[in-house]
Amino acid sequence: LGDVYKRQVEEVISDDNKILSSTNPAVFETEPKEAVDIDIYYEASNAIAIANINTQSTLLNYFNCYSFGNGVESDRIRDDFNAPKIGKGVKVSTILDEPYMEERRSNGLIFSQIYNSTSGINRLNQFIQAEPITKDVNPEYGSIQKLYAKGIRQVIDIYLLNEAKLMSMGFGEKTSHNLINQLIRSRKESIEDWRFLAAFGVQRLGMGNCENLLRNYSVEKIFDLSIKDISNINGFAEITAELIFDGLTLIKPQYEVLISGGFKLEHTLLNTELNQSNSPFNSKTIVFTGTMSESRAKLQKQAKAFGANVGKSVSSKTDFLIIGENVGQSKIKDAKSHQVDLLTEAEYLKLLKL
């Protein structure tokens, strides 16, 4: 509390009592040490609002000594030698040597480890001072920052680069080689059309909305849609439709250039194609959990091809929970509470006739 001090006088205890074992306690005179250049404060009560310091008196709900009324104070219970001291334990704090203020760290990361109540893993370390949980990323040396500083503003600009150009921008030989190889690989490997569209960063067109859009119109037709066409799709309000329309208009030239570069897109099945499916999972919401014989991504893609909606967590809207090996009990419990049908992976594939 800085230079503010408060004293509280407790109830006076007479000499004729059973609390003190001596009516004539020994008195030791002490002299304080010379002031040192450090501000140390010992905790004596709960925190008191600074705004109330000069406006009202505050009674402390804590004391750490008895006063005999003659200038003598004792911090021992019954004032006995070696008796327990009155106190909450030493809790010392001090002031900062420099002013403090809010700081926005645009290039800093915080990692406080993981916690899993099911498996009993608790590695949280945000309250352990010795554990470093922050990492500063130097914005000057990041790959994206270097590209941006050299005038790269659009995706198509990246695909026009070569190793020599990257090295002239300050990238090392190995880094330049790896980046170009990744660009070549991205054109050779197939990618879902909704993932490809989401990569352009159109406002209100995240992965979920991209998939919803492409279930109603093929990727070749979305650039010819009107605002009304988009707003008629379930899940797209008029304001969202306007933002998507403007965004698609803006990225159309980039899209056409990239597609001409040889990208292999896996087309999303249209709702009209899904409705013709005789799959038992058509229009059903399913969730996969546990270790499967195939990759989770492949099974999810397969389920969507059969008209299913794939969820990430079990809820009241879930129809089936497909379980593999090493399944956590939390999802099983949630499925039973929501009366969700449980199927093993083998049972699921059998129903698909695969």
Using brief descriptors, characterize the structure shown:
354 residues, alpha/beta, four-stranded parallel β-sheet, two-stranded antiparallel ribbon, 12 helices, elongated
Explain what the structure shows.
The protein has 354 residues and is α/β, with parallel strands linked by helices. It has twelve helices and 14 strands. A hairpin with a 4-residue loop joins strand 6 and strand 7 (121-122). The longest helix has 23 residues, at 238-260. The chain is elongated and about 100 Å long. 12% of the residues are buried.
Helical run tally: 12
The percentage helix is: 25-40%
Side-by-side strand order of the widest sheet: 12-11-13-14
Query: What oligomeric state do these chains adopt?
Result: single chain
CA gyration radius, whole angstroms? 35 Å
Overall pLDDT metric: 80
Order of helices and strands: EEEEEEEEHHHHEHHHHEHEHEEHEH
Strand count, sense and barrel status of the largest sheet are: 4 strands, parallel
Low-confidence stretches: 1-7
Distance between the termini: 73 Å
Q: How many strands appear in the DSSP assignment? A: 14
Question: What can be said about this structure in brief?
Answer:
This protein is 30% helix and 11% strand.
How would the blueprint of this fold be written?
Elements: E1 40-42, E2 66-67, E3 73-74, E4 92-94, E5 108-110, E6 115-116, E7 121-122, E8 134-136, H1 143-149, H2 155-158, H3 163-168, H4 173-188, E9 191-192, H5 193-198, H6 207-214, H7 227-231, H8 238-260, E10 265-266, H9 271-274, E11 285-289, H10 296-305, E12 309-311, E13 320-323, H11 329-337, E14 341-344, H12 345-351
Parallel strand pairs: 9-10, 11-12, 11-13, 13-14
Antiparallel strand pairs: 1-4, 2-3, 5-8, 6-7
